[in-house]
Amino acid sequence: MTYITDKLILIFLSIFLLYSTCSMDKLVIYLLVGVIFACLNGYFENRILLIVTGVMYVVMLLFVPELILIAPIVCYDLFAQRLYIIEIIIGVILLNTIDDIGIMGTIFLLVVTLLAHVLFYKSNRNEVLSEQIKHIRDDSEERNILLADKNKHLIERQDQDIYVATLKERNRIARDIHDNVGHMITRSILQMGALMTVNKQEPLHSQLESVKNNLDVAMNNIRESVHDLHDESIDLRQAIGDLVDEIKDSFECSVDYDIGDNIDRKYKYAIIGIVREAVSNIIKHSNNDKVDIIVREHPGMYQLVIHDYKSKGAYYDNRANDKNTTIDATQNIGRADGIGIHNMQDRVRTLKGNMSIDERNGYKIFVTFPK
């Protein structure tokens, strides 16, 4: 936009020169020639085209010297493409037209031509700075996005660390209660039972029995609380990671884990149990080097997929000998020595889930649990 503004300024100054030197008819013709040159060179911005138009302008000056009055318009584009030779030729022609336009007109024309060079330099400098500012802004936005992404991952990592630390602390508390308070109460219950056996007289026997009943209730409450703490302290991601560690030295194992932390413990136990059985079978029977484990949470269900590529096959189920079949593992399999798949089947059936085994590309166990 600044280049257009510059040319408009030069056109208005050229009009002033033409008005003070030429008749109105020639003013319109010469001005039209200058506008055509300015529009062509400004629209195409082609160096070869500019050379052609510059040579044409020099030739026209030889026949119509008064066209020198539009030289600032032409020199603006010539300076943009650094065609200094053509500008020097125009300057020589200008010196030869002093008698036609006068000394003052020549000086004014030189000043306007110099102004054309200054305007282009200023506009070009502004455009370069504007591009640099855009690049700086884009780089800054990109860095901000990267920093925001890193900060998000850092926060997620910190939250995960806090969550793991919380689970470990719960597990420690549950273990301390079980080992210390639980044993003391158990010992007190045994001692109270012995006292009740020795002391049969009333009302002491009834009082001892009441104390023993209270200790039994307290022991049951502690046992339930310890179990709840221990169940909540199970980190499903860490448990699956520990199972994967058993095979990562011999297999290329990838884990896609996408489940929230608030999953119920019954699903945790089922998923861990199925993965443990599958890992055990992979270690014993698989002849491949790649295993995929996918654990995902969907709006209405939990999904578990264990894919053992290039497996020998038929080591889970005797009916799955056809490599192009898919069996429903939630039905009774009927193989005496298939204890691993039976255990998986029992876990899935208990939670009213679905389980299938596909042997079309290795050995794939597909399990879904409804929420």
Distance between the termini: 62 Å
How much is the average pLDDT?
A: 79
CA radius of gyration is 45 Å
Sheet with the most strands?
A: 6 strands, mixed
User: What fraction of the residues are assigned to beta strands by DSSP?
Assistant: 5-15%
Question: Share of helix among residues?
Answer: 55-70%
Q: Quick one: overall form? A: elongated
- The low-pLDDT segments are 312-327, 332-337
Per DSSP, the total helix count is 10
Read across the widest sheet, the strand sequence of neighbours is 1-2-3-6-5-4
Quaternary structure annotation:
single chain
Specify the structural class: alpha+beta
Number of strands: 6
What is the chain-wise order of helices and strands? HHHHHHHHEHEEEHEE
